[in-house]
Amino acid sequence: MKNTTLKFCNETIHPGEMLSLALPLPQLFSCAPLYMPIKLLHGKVSGPCILIIAAMYGNEINGTEIIHRLLSLPAIAKLKGTLIAIPVLNVHGLINRSRFLPGGINLNSHFPGNEHGTNVERLANIFVTEIFNKADVCINLQTGPVNCTNLPMVQFHSNDEKTMELAQAFNAPVMVKSEFDSGSLEELSNEKAKPFLTYLGGEAMRFDQRAIKVGVEGILNIMRKTGMLPEKITKSVKVTQSVLADNLMWVSASSSGTNHTKQKLGQPVKKGDLLCTIKDPFGTADNVTLCSPKEGIIVGQSNTPLAHEGDGLFQIAVFPEVHQVADHLEQWHQEQTVANG
Questions:
Q1: Which pairs from 273-278 meet CB under 8 Å and 24+ separation?
Q2: How many other CB atoms sit within 10 Å of the CB of residue 136?
Q3: Can you tell me the mean pLDDT for 211-239?
Q4: For a disulfide at 41, which of 81, 83, 94, 215, Cβ 3.0-4.6 Å?
Q5: What is the mean pLDDT of the chain?
Q6: 212 or 327, which is more confident
Q7: Distance, CA of 47 to CA of 191 (rounded, Å)
Q8: What number is the average pLDDT over the span 54-69?
C-alpha cells in the first residue's frame, strides 16, 4: 500500500523522501542555541515506524557511527514504512564529552518530561512529544562507560512476545532481560506497550569496529523482521543465534590499587576462578585476589589498571548452561573473523 504524507516537527514529509532536520532544544544560560539532529526516511510503501537513538549518554559514540553507516547503505532507500534516526540525543553531553547534561543530570531519569519543568524535563518532553510518540518500535544504542568495554549484547525490559522476538532477531551474541529505572525511556516504553531494545557494545569515547558491525547488522535484522526490508537471501549456512542470560552481575574491587588480569571479554569463568589480582602501587600491603562469585561469561570489563575500592571491574552474565554458551561464543567469534576477512 502506498504511504501517506507525514507531519513531523512542523514539517510535511512526502513518501520516498529523506530529510535531515534540526529540532530546537531549550537554551542554556549562554543563550547559545542547541539543536537535536534528526534523520528521517519516509518510504514510498506503508509500514512500521522504527526509532533509533544514539548518544543518550553524550560520550557513547559507537551508536552515532552505527546510524551513519546504516543510512549510507543503498538498501535503506527502498524501505517500507518510516525510519527515524537520532544520531545524538544528548547534544550537550557530546559537546562536553560527558555522559550527562549540565549539573551532572542523567537524561534517562526524566521521561516523559514536562513542558513547563526544568531544562532536562523540557528536553525530555520535546523528544517524547515530537519524536518518540510517533514510533512503533524503539532501539537505543549504548556502550559501556569510559574505560569499560561491553561484549555486544541486547537488553530488553518486557515479557511482551513481540519484544522477545525482536531481541532474538537482532542476533547479538548475548541477550538479557533487565529491569528498568524510574523515569527512564524504558519505563515509558513499557507503559505504552512499545517494543524497546537497548543494544550495548564497546566503550564510551572509542569506536569499536566489531560492536559497530554487529549493531548495523542487528538493526537490519530488525527491519527485515518487521517487514521494512525484504528477507536476506543467504546460502544455507548455519548462523549462531543469540542466547538468553538469566541475569547480569558486577564484581567490584574489594580494595584499591592496580588491577592485573588476563581475563578477556567473552571468556567463561567458574565459581571461584581468579578474575584479577589487585596490588598496592606503593608496595606496602599484600596483594588482594578477586574471584568470580558465580559461573558465567565475562560480558563487561574495566580497561583501566587503576581501581578504587568498590569500582566495578567485571560484569558476568549467568546462564543455565555455561559450557554450551562458551561454545556458542567461540563459534560466534569465528563467524565474525570469517565475515571480516
A1: 275/251, 275/313, 275/314, 276/313, 276/314, 278/253, 278/254, 278/307
A2: 15
A3: 86
A4: 83
A5: 92
A6: 212
A7: 23
A8: 97
Assess whether pLDDT exceeds 90 at residue 232: no
CA gap 75, 63 in Å, rounded: 20
Q: What is the pLDDT of residue 32?
A: 82
Taken as a whole, the chain contains a residue count of 341
Q: CB atoms < 10 A from the CB of 126, how many?
A: 19
Average pLDDT value for residue range 173-196: 94
Q: Residue 22 pLDDT more than 80?
A: yes
Global confidence as pTM: 0.93
C-alpha distances in Å from residue 42, one per residue of 23, 79, 83: 18, 8, 7
Distance CA 281, CA 308 (A): 12
